[in-house]
Structure formats: structure tokens, C-alpha cells
Task: structure prediction
Amino acid sequence: MTSSAATAGLGAATLAGINAGHAQQSGTIKIGQMVSLTGPLAVDGVEHKNGLDMAIEEINEAGGILGMTVESVVLDSANQTAEEVSSAANLLIDREGVSAIVNGYNVGANQAEYDAIADAGIIYIHYNTSVGHHEVFESDPERYFGIFMADPAEVYYGYGLPVMLDRIRSQGVWKPENNKIALITGSLPYSIVISNAIRDNAAKYGFEVSFEEVVPVPTTEWGAVLKKVRDDAPAVIANTHFYPGDLAQCQVQFAQNPTNSLVYYQYGPLLKAFSELAGEAARGVLTSSVIGILPDEMGNAFREKYYAKFGDTAEADPGASTYSEMYHYAIAAALAGGVGEPGNHEQNRKVADNLRRFVYRAPFGTLRYDPRFNAAIPYPTLSEDPSLAMPHLLYQITDPAAANPKKLIYPAPYNEAEFTLPPWFK
Result:
């Protein structure tokens, strides 16, 4: 077995070892998922399903969870409204009797699904990237014991961006003509929270927010807001809307008459769809993620395995999120002596305790739940220890036509390239 194959199989090997040392059970375990299989965010939702299914296939090959076969039940949350997500959660609990919901993200639900899940007492792991999760969990940790957010809250994107910009400026390659940041904000709460945090933290690093405008979601016509931004001529344009197709249109329209501004888009350019749509205009764009696959042995091995299964056009980064969640849950449940069905709060508390107790090394870094929030926290924005926190990754698009258009430029020790000045600078 190659070192890459060995690294890719660590989760399966761990689970197989646990299974071998415990009394085997029989039967089926249902794992639910509610993701966008249709609608504007299906580009991620399909990969969230793929990542879950790939993990379940491997887990079953390793003996399931203490001998029990795992199967998925996936429902379409479409536009991710509170009604769609809550309805899906209720169906998974009441009709399907799932032992856990292992999810991607539903950014529009605003924790509307939490109470039904808490009443059932099952485990729910998601990537909603919402500070609202912190607030709900802290309001009653006993009630929401089984609800976990497997990535840091969106507010840390905003706190981290001025830090990253300051780091780029200190390298001397980028010598901004001023200290202005223009903020373009999508109308969803996710985007608004990030923009507010950028504004709150900018001055600490010598920046000022000189322009702000909220745009409707979705949108593809950026001419009016870009004219205002060009008149402001900022050092940085930060757009916290995150749909990749919409952002690609924004970049194409910006490139028709660019200013000497760094351009940062929230999350969307992480996906290859952005570079495919924006073409050469994408070169030089900055983006960030806390669930991006690292360019290390484990990350590269996962990409290779994921593309071999789903094809080179697949998006491995969102697939890695649900893949890792499922493995972490399976190991935690096996160590607890099994899963708990709806209503079995006692057994699910044992599983939840294990999820908090045991760290899982995922393709995107450390998956560890801070007990204050039942959520991951970011490195280095909140924790300076990368063994305890998930890295907040800054990328730059370096070759829009490449199979992997982006390179990781921050933070150390994970970065694989250095920042370069975008080609539109005069």
C-alpha cells in the first residue's frame, strides 16, 4: 500500500480496529442528510451527498458500526429556507427514524430545525457556518447536546480577512495606494455577519471601510455597484456574497474596467465552477475557506480517491466535509457501544461525549469541537494551535484553466505558494 493510500484509509482502519474488539451486532443504521440537490447551491449539495455516500461505503467495507450496516437517506433542502429544512428534518426523524443527520450546510434555515432535532435527541452535525449556532447552543447546552457545527462560525471569516490582508501587505509585493476596503454584501444573514465583522476589525490592521452596499441574492448584474466601487478606487474589494456563478459574473464585469484593487470573494471561487465561468478574468482573485482540502499527504490522497470515484469535474472540497463528519460520527458511535435512535437520549449523549472527546484529522485539518460552542474554531484567528483548530485558508486563483485553479497562500504551515500581484494591476 502506498503512503497516500495508507493515509486515505486511516479512518477506515481505526473503525475496523474498534469493530474487531467489540461484540458484533446486526441490523441497519439510517443516517439522514438534508442538502440542496436542486437550486442555486446544488453545486455543493450534490458533493455533500457524494461525500457522505463514499464514507458510508467505506465504513460498511470496514464492518459498519459494530457490525451494523449503514445506509443514507438524503432529502432535498432545495433553496435552504427555514421551512424546507425544518420539513426535511421532521421527515428524517418521524418517517425514517434516523440515528443521526450528517449534513453539509443550509445557510437560510437560521437554526429553525434545532428544536425538532433536540426533542428527538439524535446527533446532528452540519457545516452551517453560523454564529447563531453558538448562541443557540450556549442558551441551553443540555437541550442541544447533540447538535454540532463542524466548521467555525462565519463571523471569523470577517475577523480573519483584515489579518490576512495585513500579512500580504507586510510581504511588500502589494503596496496599496490607500487603506480603503469596499464592502459588497449579499442579502443573506451569512454574508451580512461576515461584512459586519470585516468592518469591526478593519481599523485594528490599518484599514478603513470606505464603501458598503447590500445586493440582493441571487444577482448576476453588478454594473451599478461596480461603478460606485470604481469611483471609490479602494485598495481592496471584498464581496461576501458566495454563490459561485454570481461571483463569476461580478469578476467578469469588474475585469472590463478594473481598478488597482485586490478582489476577495467569499467562498465561491473555492469551487471550480467559478473559474470555469469567469475564465481568465479569475486569475489573481482571492478567496477563503475553513473546509478547504489541504495540499498535504492526506489532502492530496483524498482528492485522488474522490476524483477516481466521481470524476475530475467533481468538487472534492465540499465532499470532504461530509465524508469526514461521517467517519468522526461512526468512530464516536462505535466507541460508545452503538448508535441511538430517536428518543434514546442516553445513548446519543455517549456518542456526543465521544465527538467532543476525540479529535479527527480530516483532509481539511483538525476537526475538534470546542466544548463552549459544540463547534470547530479557526486557526490562527481564534487559536494559535493548529492541532486544536481548523485552519482558515486563504487562496489565490493562479490558473483558471487548471484542474485545481487555486493555490493556498496562507497560513503557514499549510501554504503551498506565495501571493502574487493580480494581472489587472497597472
Notes: Residues 1-8 have pLDDT under 50 and may be disordered. The chain has two domains: 10-153+294-379, 155-289+392-410. The CA atoms of residues 60 and 121 lie 25 Å apart. The first helix runs from residue 3 to 8.
